[in-house]
Write a structure and sequence with these properties.
130 residues, two-stranded antiparallel sheet, alpha+beta, 4 strands, 6 helices, two-stranded parallel sheet
Amino acid sequence: EDISKILNLEGFLYNKISKLSTGQTQRANIARCLVHNPQYYILDEATTGLDIISSQIILDFIKEERKKGKTILYSTHYMEEAENICDHVIMINKGEIIDSGTPKEIKERTNTTNLRDAFFKLIGGIKHED
């Protein structure tokens, strides 16, 4: 019941997995992990392709687990998510680490106001042939 409330599963709790939307399926997958109360999470693109409500539920869940002292390794292409939920960020471009630190440290080093701009500054801007 607690997990159902945390991830807002009540509306589809008794549906077959094949009948769920992408966001509902993603939340059900995370719920399966929560049953075991892990100390560590590895989440790869957890919100990709999800509607805004499902994405926010997952991001809120991550924030709450972090407050409980859980360790979360979170891979994303969404710089805004990384900036809002991560204590430490490692930026990678073409398989190479280009910067690492807190979001604040990275923004200060690159003299930018957000991680998206910091990333582009670190790679020398966008090149349309890439």
